[in-house]
UniProtKB/TrEMBL annotation:
EXS domain boundaries: 175-370
Source taxonomy: Eukaryota, Fungi, Dikarya, Ascomycota, Taphrinomycotina
GO cellular component, one term: Golgi membrane
Record's protein name: Erd1
Membrane topology field: Multi-pass membrane protein
Cellular location(s): Membrane
Residue spans crossing the bilayer: 13-36, 65-86, 92-111, 219-236
A Pfam family matched in the record: EXS
Listed GO biological process terms: retrograde vesicle-mediated transport, Golgi to endoplasmic reticulum
Length: 370
């Protein structure tokens, strides 16, 4: 039987994390392309300030900009893999990753400078749990995206620790010793703390009681993530009270988050009143049939509940404690978030009617599904 964990020998930790970033970037590019194909006005929804004539958006769609960075990142990833395979030195594979980071954050007026400048300002803005009123929607989208990358961000700390130790003592590997669960849990909790604070700010600026109520409920959703994160530090021993508490907190957070994904973020009524036939029909224009939303809602539920692998027998859970298992779970969460981003933007377009009007174009894709 093939040992799947051996596959990770061909991809050190830093490249696994880099792969997940590239996958997210390509997924976002594909989402933008598909949204553009259904003439969703992504420029308006994301408040993109690029100096592009809005009348000529069909000649310069936003997805082409993210695609360029994706391609550059891919070439650097291939270079990093080649370096690693030739030198068998994981520290050398950090160089292309650092180059990609420099390309994104460099202040030179090259390579989509305006887009990168907006991204850099956004990173600084949300790092303290804030958001700009005029950029509220894209700021929240990116902040939510970070929650799915929380474990990836935590592993970046581990990758840095491994690099420092490898350089100082290349003859040994102390990966397991360097995995400080307390520090990594604090890092993983930070994106949720950002969203929690944003919800509190949103609640403070709400115009009415209804808006304040839903902002509070959203804040509670992110608050339920903290027990699911921190109880894992002390709840690893099976069939103990803390283990049951850890799984219970994960169940509460996952169920609550799934309901919020479908009912609030995607603006679907399936779970609000499932016995009402009107809940299974759209009251506003949506580009896809109802069956598509049902399928991806079910997929979102399955991926949200991926934590249940912890309650399986030790024979089956051992895989998820390996490098391959950890990478697989991180990949599935990033994949789930990419689906969420697409339908979140699409739902916002349906609420605000942010659709492009192209004269002479076929409007069949915008027809109201039955």
């Amino acid at each position: 039987m093939v040992d799947l964990n051996n596959l990770m020998d061909y991809m050190p930790l830093i490249l696994r994390l880099y792969f997940l970033v590239l996958f997210g970037l390509y997924s976002f590019t594909f989402a933008l392309w598909l949204l553009y194909a259904y003439r969703v006005d992504v420029f308006a929804l994301l408040n993109n300030p690029l100096p592009v004539n809005r009348l000529n958006q069909h000649q310069a769609p936003l997805y082409r900009l993210t695609y360029k960075l994706s391609v550059i990142g891919t070439f650097l990833f291939i270079a990093a893999e080649i370096i690693y395979m030739l030198t068998e030195s994981s520290e050398m594979s950090y160089i292309p990753v650092v180059i990609f980071c420099v390309i994104i954050f460099m202040p030179l007026r090259k390579l989509q400078y305006f887009q990168r400048k907006v991204f850099m300002r956004q990173c600084l803005r949300i790092s303290t749990g804030n958001y700009a009123v005029e950029y509220k929607f894209p700021d929240i989208i990116f902040s939510d995206l970070l929650t799915s990358y929380s474990r990836v961000i935590a592993d970046l700390w581990l990758a840095g620790a491994i690099l420092i130790y490898t350089v100082s003592e290349p003859s040994r590997s102390r990966r397991k010793e360097l995995e400080n669960e307390a520090i990594m849990s604090l890092i993983a909790a930070y994106p949720y703390a950002i969203r929690f604070r944003q919800c509190l700010i949103e609640r403070a600026h709400a115009d009415n009681e209804t808006a304040r109520f839903w902002s509070t409920m959203n804040a509670i959703k992110y608050l339920t993530a903290f027990p699911a994160i921190f109880l894992g530090i002390v709840g690893n021993k099976r069939m103990t009270f803390m283990w049951f508490l850890w799984n219970a907190s994960s169940a509460i957070n996952s169920t609550y988050s799934f309901w919020w994904d479908v009912s609030q973020d995607w603006n679907l009524d399936f779970l609000k009143d499932p016995l009402n036939n009107k809940s299974w029909k759209f009251q506003t224009r949506r580009p896809f049939p109802v069956a598509v939303y049902i399928f991806f809602s079910a997929l979102d539920f399955v991926l949200r509940m991926s934590w249940v692998v912890r309650v399986l027998s030790e024979k089956h859970t051992s895989l998820f404690a390996t490098d391959f298992g950890i990478f697989l779970m991180q990949f599935l969460e990033v994949f789930r978030r990419c689906i969420w981003v697409f339908f979140r933007i699409e739902a916002e377009a349906s609420k605000t009617m942010a659709y492009l009007t192209v004269q002479g174009a076929n409007d069949d894709v915008l027809s109201h599904p039955e």
